[in-house]
Design goal:
With 271 residues, this protein is an alpha+beta fold. Helices cover 17% and strands 38% of the residues. It has a single domain, classed as 4-Layer Sandwich (Glutamine Phosphoribosylpyrophosphate, subunit 1, domain 1), CATH 3.60.20.10. The two termini are 26 Å apart.
């Protein structure tokens, strides 16, 4: 299964990844994956690095492990391909500019019916690759586009309503764990995931809040190093990365996060 990770913090933090370690969480001990990507936000824009190759002995991964930039919002994805070729166009996270911001999306699951289902129009947001995940992202952007037509960013409540309705309609198509951000707020939708016993059940995502009291917060996070002083940091991951009390998201639970704090959440009903 694919691996999702995100960090939201009150103040910028230096974040570096051992992407190979994260890949092992998703696919056992084999030192491989079908692609990886990381977005480090800087205001409304982001540094996005993607590679349709294994993280193992990859020079870009080595650079990220040693020189990850400071950011208040980070989103990452480790791919194990199920739909679409192993190529850059199909490598998460996907990103598009809309309303003067870079919007980014990463998905874990399988929603192949989205290509035939009504209600998932993509408008002008054409996919570059051929995955169901990117198609879902384009459909979400088509719904969000009217909100971003003005000169100012739309209210976060209106954004939440659209993402919530989209997630509720996407969920019946198959496992639909996803991370989405517009650079200001981060949305995390938890659904089902293939567990170690082979069943597709919740949880598909876990969340942890850390309050750093002046000491670096990097110790004990498996695959991620965060160098930061006194502040609040919220972490989201497909599986817990430490022995701390990560909270599993319920099936159909949507979070909206800003500056390291959950500002809205709900358990969505199926449409």
């Amino acid at each position: 299964m694919c691996e999702l990770f995100a960090m939201s913090s009150r103040l910028p933090a230096a974040v570096t990844f051992s992407l190979e370690t994260l890949a092992r969480h998703a696919g056992g001990e084999r030192p491989s994956c079908d692609g990886w990507g990381v977005a480090f936000y800087d205001g409304p824009d982001a540094r996005v690095l993607r590679e349709p190759k294994a993280a193992y002995q990859n020079p870009w991964v080595d650079f990220i492990e040693k020189h990850g930039p400071q950011s208040k919002l980070v989103l990452s994805h480790i791919r194990h391909a199920s739909t679409g070729a192993k190529c850059l166009a199909n490598t998460h996270p996907f990103s598009r500019a809309l309303g003067g911001c870079l919007h980014t999306f990463a998905h874990n699951g399988n929603v192949k019916e989205i290509f035939e289902r009504r209600g998932f129009s993509i408008g002008r947001h054409q996919p570059i690759g051929d995955t169901d995940s990117e198609r879902a992202f384009c459909a979400l952007l088509a719904r969000l586009e009217p909100l971003w037509a003005g000169l100012a960013a739309p209210g976060i409540a209106a954004r939440y309503d659209i993402v919530a309705a989209f997630a509720a309609e996407l969920k019946p198509l198959g496992p639909a764990n996803f991370l989405y951000t517009d650079g200001e707020v981060l949305f995390a939708f938890g659904d089902r995931r293939q567990q170690k016993d082979g069943r597709f059940v919740a949880p598909g995502l876990h969340v942890l809040t850390r309050h750093c009291g002046g000491l670096p917060c990097e110790s004990g996070i498996d695959g991620v190093s965060i160098e930061s002083q006194e502040q609040t940091i919220l972490l989201i991951a497909s599986v817990p990365l430490t022995n701390e009390a990560w909270r599993p998201l319920g099936e159909g639970e949507l979070l909206m996060v800003r500056h390291g704090e959950i500002i809205e959440h709900s358990l969505l009903e199926k449409c």
